[in-house]
């Protein structure tokens, strides 16, 4: 494994490594105004949600690595501590990239990027009409992390108003993850897109206490078929299936076929059962996978 102490790397090297490593990152397209009312629009991928009560986002207009200058967004926020965080989807990603161009102060990136200003209801900066979700924020604090090239400035922004396009809502009025079509920032010129093909669910172990991987029988835990993800699924159950359920499941046609085909060959039987269990786990059928693995 390649290892570096960051003190031995240049800021540019650190940026290249970390931007690829800490990814994908959500994109904050921040609109701000200066004391004279001039509008600025700029994207930041050093951004995330940090609290819901109060609702707080944090993003960082870092000092430029190239020449240690600060960004207009930061200067605007120091004058007018308000912003709109506009969430980025695939339909606008090229325009968002264009808005990152270092235009001179006073140039409106809405116009340069061809995006539409929409008046905010509570803060001075406008919203981006094309954005599916717009968060009107009041800046609570700006924390400087240094005065050297690449140093961040943490903008702690409290969300006061949430605007959501009805186009991305489901029938219950909740955001439908399949409709958001969001994009994330990677390293270099790379982005990623959240589409139905790459969405998946992971059951949250918040309401129950999973048995843990350490409680999985040795032969299963050391399977040559099951992956670490599979073991995580198995260890997330609160309890193992009852013996009666396992016995009934062993009478299914699929398991009977495996048992009949592997009479007298325990190694092949274990392999086939583990392959079947992996198939079920990949389909999210964890309880059935357990019954397969515990079948005798």
Describe this structure in words.
The chain has 296 residues and is an alpha+beta fold. Helix content is 30%, strand content 21%. It is built from eleven helices and eleven strands. It has helices spanning 11-21, 72-79, 93-98, 109-113, 177-180, 218-221, 228-235, 243-249, 253-261, 266-282, 286-294, and strands at residues 28-33, 39-44, 47-52, 55-59, 82-87, 117-118, 127-128, 133-144, 153-164, 183-185, 191-193. The strands form three sheets. The chain has a seven-stranded antiparallel beta sheet, covered by helices on one side. A two-stranded antiparallel ribbon has the order 6-7. Strands 10-11 form a two-stranded antiparallel ribbon. β6 (117-118) and β7 form a beta hairpin. α8 crosses α11 and α10 (266-282) runs antiparallel to α11 (286-294). The protein is elongated. It starts with 10 loop residues before the first helix and ends with a helix. The mean pLDDT is 94.
């Amino acid at each position: 494994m390649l290892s570096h102490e960051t003190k031995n790397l240049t800021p540019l090297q650190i940026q290249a490594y970390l931007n690829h490593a800490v990814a994908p990152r959500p994109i904050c397209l921040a609109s701000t105004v200066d004391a004279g009312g001039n509008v600025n629009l700029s994207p930041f991928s050093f951004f995330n949600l940090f609290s819901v009560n109060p609702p707080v986002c944090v993003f960082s207009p870092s000092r430029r690595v190239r020449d240690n200058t600060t960004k207009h967004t930061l200067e605007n926020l120091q004058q007018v501590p308000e912003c709109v965080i506009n969430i980025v989807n695939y339909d606008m990603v090229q325009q968002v990239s264009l808005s990152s161009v270092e235009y001179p102060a006073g140039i409106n990136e809405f116009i340069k990027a061809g995006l539409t200003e929409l008046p905010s209801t509570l803060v001075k900066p406008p919203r981006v009409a094309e954005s599916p979700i717009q968060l009107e924020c009041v800046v609570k604090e700006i924390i400087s992390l240094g005065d050297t090239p690449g140093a961040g400035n943490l903008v702690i922004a409290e969300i006061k108003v949430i605007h959501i396009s009805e186009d991305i809502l489901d029938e219950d009025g909740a955001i439908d993850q399949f409709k958001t079509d969001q994009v994330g920032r990677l390293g270099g010129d790379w982005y990623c897109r959240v589409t139905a093909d790459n969405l998946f669910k992971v059951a949250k172990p918040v309401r129950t206490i999973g048995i843990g991987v350490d409680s999985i029988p040795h032969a299963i835990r050391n399977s040559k078929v099951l992956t670490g993800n599979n073991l995580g699924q198995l260890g997330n159950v609160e309890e193992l299936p009852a013996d009666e359920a396992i016995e009934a499941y062993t009478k299914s046609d699929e398991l009977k076929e495996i048992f009949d085909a592997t009479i007298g060959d325990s190694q092949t039987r274990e392999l086939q059962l583990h392959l079947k269990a992996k198939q079920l786990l990949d389909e999210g059928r964890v309880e059935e996978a357990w019954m397969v693995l515990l079948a005798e």
